[in-house]
Write a structure and sequence with these properties.
The chain is of the alpha+beta class and about 220 residues long. About 40% of the residues lie in helices and about 15% in strands.
Length: about 220
């Protein structure tokens, strides 16, 4: 029983290699569409003896079965890599519109053009990871903060920060008060009533006078 549990955890636990990272991003892309949310993703490291990391995605759109092919290439991709992926991997799976995700320096324009002619989408991993465009959310968040009458955006204090290994936090920009270091979530400043502040001030004065009075 214990071995079966560990085997199940091993299957569910994501691997740290590049193919598993591409698989996770692919799953997030598929989750945006209700028709592909339950798609089956299979990780393959070779096909018919040809070594190449890739994903085979299977799902149904209505009564028709569909298949997608997503290659994972770690390094700088060239024309030979595109041709090999198209002829030795894509043709064996017989799929249309394959994708070859790579992580390395940006491919040259002639390589991208060749991939288009061969019917291969060639996105870098940094572009492929953009599952959700948050620009609309950020615009709305900024507008809400600017319109807040109780705590407008210009009253927010930026937290000090320091890169890992830096001796001290970065200095605040000129003309701005340095922020206090905070380890918890930011909170709105507490508001004190005038009556409460006045009573505390009077009590402090009484204590100071009592301490300075001569004692017989």
């Amino acid at each position: 029983m214990a071995e079966e549990r560990f085997d199940e955890l091993d299957r569910r636990w994501p691997r740290s290699d590049f193919l598993s990272q591409v698989r996770e991003v692919c799953r997030l892309h598929l989750a945006k569409d209700p028709l592909t949310r339950d798609a089956e993703i299979e990780e393959l490291e070779e096909v018919d003896g040809v070594r190449s990391d890739h994903l085979v995605v299977s799902y149904h759109r209505g009564p028709w079965p569909k298949r997608l092919l997503v290659g994972a290439y770690e390094g700088s991709v060239g024309s030979e890599d595109v041709n090999r992926f198209r002829s030795e991997i894509c043709d064996r799976h017989n799929v249309d519109e394959p994708e070859l995700v790579y992580r390395g320096s940006l491919a040259a324009n002639e390589v991208v053009d060749q991939a288009k002619r061969r019917g291969v989408w060639l996105p870098p991993f940094s572009e492929y990871q953009q599952v959700w465009d948050n620009s609309r959310y950020l615009r709305k968040q900024t507008a809400d903060l600017l319109a807040d009458p109780d705590y407008p955006l210009d009253l927010h204090v930026d937290k000090r920060w320091a890169p890992l290994g830096a001796p001290a936090p970065q200095a605040a920009p000129s003309g701005r008060r340095p922020a206090r270091r905070s380890t918890g979530p930011s909170r709105r400043p507490a508001r004190r009533s005038t009556a409460w502040s006045g009573s505390c001030r009077k009590q402090s004065i009484r204590i100071a006078r009592w301490r300075t009075m001569p004692r017989g």
